[in-house]
């Protein structure tokens, strides 16, 4: 029996691994008497795999059986592979036993489309109901909404989960028609819109009736594949911005395309995943969400793709040298955020420190500002840093290039370890992140 | 006021003791430049001044912090004491002197050496604590969960609320090998006790099976084409690997061999955490 679970786990986690979302953030939930588990708003990474990605959730498919034929996916119906499925019971046992040993923060459950989108959703509901009400699991659950499923089923599923996602994967209708013939923009955006509406409805309900059950309290996310199609960064970033604004998504994830199938419509099998491009998109996404940037400030029709040498924020600064240098002791928060080498935390610290007296360069260093980068863009008490000679814009550009350092695929993890301001609450919850 | 170039205080290593050092300094109008816990060896010629711990004096100092400085400052001092900074005593001492002088403003003096060093030490503590919320690995022994950690900072008091809340129907123990302390949670009560060493019995087949499943999941979930060991090392430095299930083959140190330097006699059972004989407790 248990051998069987071992093989299922191998197959069903192997085919789930291309979904990059593994965060367990977005909701704080205390433990309950009679239940096991809790949730921490900042999210908790339980391990890091050999590819450097955070492992937070038990990420598996319910089944890899699929009636759809998405060209970029290992589970597509036309692919000749072994098909297996977890029973709800097996899945619950696995989750609880991993959770008790503190291997994981919860479950990320996805599935191939078995029989129909509705049938699949019913299976997911069954599994989560067992886990929540029979096993009394109170930890984090991220569940995938299946494109094309009925609203009523999606609503039921959402009441069992903390986060829901429905992956857009391909950033345009043309790419979708070509590579995911069974999916339409409509079949993806309708459930996404429904989830958004339910979350908002639920917020008002919760104000009205304190005991209304929570509908995906940690919000909604999605994923876009980068590099499988000719779509530009500009297109991807504009779509991302739209998703945050229109659908209030919590996160948009990017996944550098890993060739899994030989197909004339897709990049060839020996194509390397565009990791640096993916990284630039994450950096830009960060700028949209926390730094007050708009997509159109970063890219446009003339420059539709990110500069691979220089990060997007730095690139913006270099193109707007007329706004610099900035006086550290006077600049408003929004402008401090635009200085390369100053992050959200250091900008907050600068504001704090300014209240006790003027700041000089050595003070900035103690605050955690990366002077190596920031020095070209700032003055302290009206002076530029000692010994700095800037001959031309080109020199700065060269100095700021980050030389193809292969970055972490999860820039958001950095925020966990960035140094936050210590507040009483932070300390109590032991948070070191501030998502 | 003496400049205190040579003044050394020695105290009993307790938080109250440190507060008494602050009291003494104000009362005698003197400033020590070293404050030494008992664990640090004295050098041949130093003549440290022994500061007796007195609950009342300690309370007076401690309670005056939120009044004269701020409650955030009190929190910072409490946390500062849990850090592994070798100079934490002097840092806390100087921070408090600064605070008593400047009031609540001290928390904004981020460019001051003492303030920034103390905050940095505390950030190291809280970030290590955050990591351990994820990296702690329990093994199941009968009804009880047992984990071993080797943290640099004394993180157990900060980990306690998190794990007690999460596993409120379980019984568990987290043994901090570095500090010789254990957090024990049973019947809804958490306790921190001294534990010199810990010897655990063999695990059962179900435990072994779940370890095997977890290790397989860990291997499978990595995408080969994105291999990035440097990045993994940044987020999860090797020093954590020793006690993590997914690395027990790589590190060659199984979790259940904790007591390798300690008692070799086979212990019977740790399935009941209340049986004190299963681990040694020294009321140090
Ligand atoms: S529906 Fe999902 S599992 Fe099925 S082929 Fe498409 S991407 Fe793969």
How would you describe this protein?
The complex is a heterodimer of chains A (435) and B (284). Helices cover 40% and strands 9% of the residues of chain A. Chain A is of the alpha/beta class and 435 residues long. Chain A folds into two domains: 5-261 and 273-298, Aldolase class I (TIM Barrel, Alpha-Beta Barrel); 312-407 and 414-431, no CATH class. In chain A, the strands form three sheets. Chain A has a six-stranded parallel sheet. In chain A, β1 and β2 (54-55) form a beta hairpin. By secondary structure, chain B is α/β, with parallel strands linked by helices. Chain B contains nine helices and eight strands. Chain B has helices spanning 15-28, 55-68, 71-82, 88-102, 113-135, 156-166, 205-221, 229-235, 248-251, and strands at residues 8-10, 34-36, 49-50, 139-141, 144-149, 171-176, 181-186, 189-194. In chain B, the strands form two sheets. Chain B has a five-stranded mixed sheet with strand order 4-5-6-7-8, covered by helices on one side. In chain B, β4 (139-141) and β5 (144-149) form a beta hairpin. The longest helix of chain B is centred in the middle third of the chain and has 23 residues, at 113-135. Chain B starts with 7 loop residues before the first strand and ends in a 33-residue tail after the last helix. At the A-B interface, α1, β1, β2, α2 and α12 of A face α3, α5, α6, α7 and α8 of B. Iron/sulfur cluster is lined by residues 66, 68, 70, 73, 75-76, 112-113 of chain A.
Gist?
The complex is a heterodimer of chains A (435) and B (284). Chain A is α/β, with parallel strands linked by helices.
Considering the chains and any ligands shown, give keywords for the structure:
heterodimer, A: 435 residues, alpha/beta, TIM Barrel, six-stranded parallel beta sheet, 17 helices, 10 strands, 40% helix, disordered C terminus, B: 284 residues, five-stranded mixed beta sheet, three-stranded parallel beta sheet, 9 helices, binds iron/sulfur cluster
């Amino acid at each position: 029996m248990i051998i069987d679970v071992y093989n299922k786990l191998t197959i069903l986690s192997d085919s789930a691994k291309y979904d990059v979302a593994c965060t367990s953030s977005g909701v704080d939930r205390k433990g309950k008497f009679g239940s096991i588990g809790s949730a921490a708003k900042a999210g908790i990474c339980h391990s890091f795999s050999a590819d450097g990605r955070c492992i937070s959730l038990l990420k598996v498919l319910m089944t890899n059986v699929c009636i759809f034929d998405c060209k970029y996916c290992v589970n597509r119906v036309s692919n000749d592979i072994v098909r297996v499925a977890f029973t709800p019971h097996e899945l619950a046992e696995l989750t609880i036993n991993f959770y008790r040993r503190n291997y994981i923060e919860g479950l990320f459950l996805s599935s191939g489309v078995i029989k129909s989108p509705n049938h699949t959703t019913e299976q997911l509901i069954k599994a989560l109901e067992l886990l929540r009400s029979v096993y009394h699991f109170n930890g984090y659950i991220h569940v995938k909404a299946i494109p094309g499923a009925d609203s009523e089923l999606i609503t039921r599923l959402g009441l069992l989960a903390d986060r829901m996602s429905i992956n857009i994967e391909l950033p345009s209708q043309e790419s979708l028609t070509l590579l995911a013939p069974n999916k339409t923009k409509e079949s993806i955006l309708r459930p996404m819109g429904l989830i958004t509406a339910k979350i908002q409805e639920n917020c008002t309900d919760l104000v009205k009736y304190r005991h209304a059950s929570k509908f995906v309290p940690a919000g909604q996310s999605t994923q876009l594949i980068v590099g499988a199609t000719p779509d530009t960064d500009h297109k991807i970033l504009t779509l991302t911005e739209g998703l945050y604004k229109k659908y209030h998504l919590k996160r948009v994830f990017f996944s550098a395309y890993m060739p899994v199938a030989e197909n004339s419509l897709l990049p060839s099998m020996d194509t390397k995943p565009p990791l640096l491009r993916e990284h630039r998109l994450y950096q830009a996404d960060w700028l949209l969400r926390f730094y007050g940037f708009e997509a159109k400030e970063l890219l446009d029709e003339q420059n539709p793709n990110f500069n691979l040498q220089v990060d997007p924020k730095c690139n913006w600064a270099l193109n707007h040298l007329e706004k610099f240098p900035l006086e550290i002791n006077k600049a408003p928060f929004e402008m401090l955020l635009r200085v390369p080498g100053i992050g959200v935390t250091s900008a907050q610290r600068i504001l704090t420190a300014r209240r006790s007296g003027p700041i000089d360069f050595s003070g900035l260093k103690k605050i955690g500002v990366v002077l190596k980068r920031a020095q070209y863009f700032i003055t302290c008490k009206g002076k530029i840093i000692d010994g700095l000679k800037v001959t031309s814009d080109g020199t700065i550009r060269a100095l700021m290039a980050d030389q193809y350092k292969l970055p972490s695929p999860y820039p958001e993890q950095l925020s966990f370890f960035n140094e936050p301001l210590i507040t009483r609450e932070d300390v109590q919850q032991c948070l070191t992140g501030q998502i | 006021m003496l400049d205190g170039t040579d003044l050394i205080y020695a105290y009993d290593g307790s938080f109250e003791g440190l507060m008494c050092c602050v009291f003494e300094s104000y009362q005698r109008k003197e400033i020590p430049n070293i404050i030494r816990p008992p664990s640090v060896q004295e050098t041949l010629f130093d003549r440290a001044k022994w500061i007796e711990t007195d609950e009342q004096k300690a309370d007076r100092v401690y309670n005056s912090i939120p009044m004269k400085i701020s409650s955030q400052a009190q929190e910072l001092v409490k946390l500062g004491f849990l850090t592994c900074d070798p100079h934490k005593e002097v840092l806390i001492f100087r921070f408090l002197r600064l605070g008593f002088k400047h009031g609540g403003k001290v928390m904004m003096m981020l460019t001051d050496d003492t303030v920034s060093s103390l905050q940095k030490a505390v950030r190291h503590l809280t970030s290590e604590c955050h990591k351990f919320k994820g990296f702690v690995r329990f093994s199941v022994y009968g009804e009880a969960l047992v984990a071993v950690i080797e943290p640099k900072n004394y993180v157990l008091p900060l980990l306690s609320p998190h794990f007690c809340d999460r596993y409120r129907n379980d019984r568990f123990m987290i043994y901090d090998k570095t500090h010789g302390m254990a957090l024990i949670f049973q019947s809804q009560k958490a306790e921190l006790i001294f534990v010199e060493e810990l010897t655990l019995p063999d695990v059962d087949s179900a435990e072994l099976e779940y370890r095997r499943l977890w290790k397989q999941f860990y291997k499978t979930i990595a995408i080969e084409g994105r291999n990035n060991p440097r990045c993994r090392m940044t987020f999860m430095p090797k020093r954590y690997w020793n006690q993590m299930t997914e690395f027990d083959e790589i590190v060659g140190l199984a979790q259940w061999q904790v007591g390798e330097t300690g008692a070799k006699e086979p212990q019977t059972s740790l399935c009941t955490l209340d049986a004190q004989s299963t681990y040694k407790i020294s009321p140090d």
